[in-house]
Design goal:
Number of helices: 10
Radius of gyration: 30 Å
Structural class: mainly alpha
Distance between the termini: 62 Å
Strand order of the largest sheet: 1-2
Shape: elongated
Number of domains: 2
Amino acid sequence: MKLPRKQATVVHDAIEQWKRDGVIPGAQAATLAATIEVQYFDWRKLAKYSFWIALFSIVSSVSAALSDRMLQDLLKVIFEAPAIHKYALLSVVAAGLYRWGFSRRRDAPDKVYRNEAIFFLAVLVTGGAISQLGLTVDTGTGHYSLLLLFSFLVYAVLGTMLESNLIWVFALLALGSWMGAETGYMSGWGAYYLGMNYPLRSCCSAPCSPALHWPWDIIR
């Protein structure tokens, strides 16, 4: 007989009390106690059902949203808007997220994961804003590595001002990406630049990461 833990404890106590009072013999009490099995909560089943419910909710909400004519028109206006307008909108959203994350970290510093999640969203929105800026000022040269350099500068400044290691990680990623893209652009997107392939260039640029982190430690 499977019972929840609390009910199994109550039944075990009742059997022990009956045995002490002589209501049932010891052998029968042992037999009854052996038939009781504690049924633990099935977290795996709960996780599975929660996943399917969440997936169904997402599909339902997206379907309901897309069926709304007004929302469709709004999305059409947003996606068809000029790149400069998207850049301005994403910049405002990113600034709001950075401010929200900074305020939350100041008020609740123990909520590390939630605070960093907000900064992570802000970093992604910042990347989207920079990409729209690139579309705005694009001259057709294909020199998009300058955007990666600009991303590094933006993330480095934000990481210093907000004292966020997460933003600094993205700054270093942007710097490494810029080095690879810039050398690729200068070599005409060939496999080699100054006799070095991409892995060797990455090895040469790797010492820049700790070198850039040194002034960050001084500032902190």
